[in-house]
Model the fold of this input.
Amino acid sequence: MEQSSRAADGLGSIPALLQRNAKQFGKKAAYREKEFGIWQSWTWKETEEEIEAFALGLLELGVSEGDFVSIIGRNRPYFYWAMVAIQSIGAVPVPVYQDSAAEEMAHILSNCGAKYAVVEDQEQVDKVIEVQEHLTDFRHMIYIDPRGLRKYDHTRLHQYSTVQDQGRAARGKLMSELEKRRSKLDFDSTCVMLYTSGTTGKPKGVVLSNRNIIKTAQNTCEFDGLKAGDEVFAYLPMAWVGDFIFSIGQAYWTGLAVNCPESAETVSSDLREIGPTYFFAPPPVFEKHLTDVMIRMEDAGRLKRSMFHHYMAHARKVGPAILDGRPVSLLDRLKYKMGELFVYGPLKNTLGLSRVRVGYTAGEAIGPELFEFYRSLGINLKQLYGQTEASVFITMQPNGEVRADTVGVPAPDVEIRIDDSGEIFYRSPGVFVEYFNNPESTASTKDTEGWVATGDAGFFDKNNGHLRIIDRVKDVGKLADGSMFAPKYVENKLKFFPDVLEAVLFGNERDRCVAFINIDLTAVGNWAERNNIAYASYQELAGHPRVLETIQEHVETVNKSVAEDPMLSGCQIHRFLVLHKELDADDGEMTRTRKVRRKIVEEKFSDLITALYDGSPEIHTKTEVTYEDGRKGSISATLDLRDAKVVPVATQKVAAE
Done:
């Protein structure tokens, strides 16, 4: 592990990497953004100039070393520039999820004592103004989009471009101060503070240093051979550590280009136009892509459907082997090339993944069937395992050693150990500095030797040395008969089906398992339209008898699959219901990264769980919901509770070691 506070090559901070890139890759594209349907592009030299102007403008505005500056908005070059400009003057960027409710935003901004904010538009300005009474030291806000803000009080409200203009005008006066602050930055300087998703409690501020980000970026770029010619697509929330390491850490280490979509609605079409060579998506994104593909196939003609299913069957058989360079017969290779011409190539192009050289998924376990689907197309999709506290990377899958049931080997410079309870611990150059103003949580997570408790249970596969994740330690339990209860394993199998959006399994310390299921409104709605089934709402469609029958078939198919695993066969679903509403972050049921808050779901829908276990055939329930404008309301429904067939198996008790 690097001991020096300043890198020997002088590249001990992100601003230092920016200066190197401006010299080394000056005319290469650094950022692109689609605006009004046209791609705008900035070279590394132009990027350096944009960042310098904003940094000088922040100095003119009075930003001091150590100040926290929140960043709130969608992926745009301006925000990435702002983060590096903030670092350049010794302040700390704090990205915030743009879809956060005002009260969530208030917690983060007040917790870090944010004095400044860089936001996108009127919506975000209004949110900050709403919570400003909780921010005792708040001084100025900077916005990018001026629409709707003309009549606001601009005493402490400034347009981004104006701040840059003021910075350029003050260059002669402030440049020496900027250079002084920038020269003080080293490996130990704070690079960014990112807040955890708050699955089990209030989000905590994770302080990451330049060492954490730069050493992690260096190691992982070398692992996958990333270089200046690569393209990354920046569409995931900027408040998420993955976007920061990909779009700033790795981008600034290698000089690769960061591409920002025009809006959330144009992500798919913009992805196709860019065709990234390096791509990351959590499992839900890959699930949605597959759902869209299957919907299109249902709408296609008989010949096209037949060709798709014929060649996809062959791809599943030989595609992963061809991708990994394993022996495949000449006849199978020729047939696969035909499939590439007629099916795989056009499909990858439609998905925007035709140029992907390295693809990753993480955040939660991906269903093996879903994983193999993409690899069978020839997409080098791999799994990694990581955390915010690790600067993302804990394990990675080397090329040629990719498996659906493991998350790979320790990433470069990462050490892993597993304690007697099965919990995974790691230490690496990427290990976070601390939880901001929370020494108790820091001490309970990271010990004096730098080992971090992940909260996940797992083990190393004896055959290949790869790590396998079972579930969260707090979620892994036992059924009443002593057999293992691992909900994620079953939930991921259910979510492989295009019409299942989310699933939540219950059963810890009970005699059997039951489940809640959310349907995917896009997929099921498309089915309803094709079959001339009218519906007025998610609730109405979720309760349709034919939808319930289809979901029951999926549950029983999953039960057969689960029964084949002797260790987890007790996790078959005995009863289930389709929820009358989608689990929603605004209602507190999920995090902003779409992780289910199990405890909240269990408490909020306790009446439904009780009914599933007491054998009730149906239940009437009333649930509070939050509308898009923040108003509260309630919805009522009578839910059909269904029994599912289970496969009889010999019980295998799992003794605690």
Q: What stands out?
A: Residues 564 and 649 are 9 Å apart (CA to CA). The longest strand covers residues 452-460.
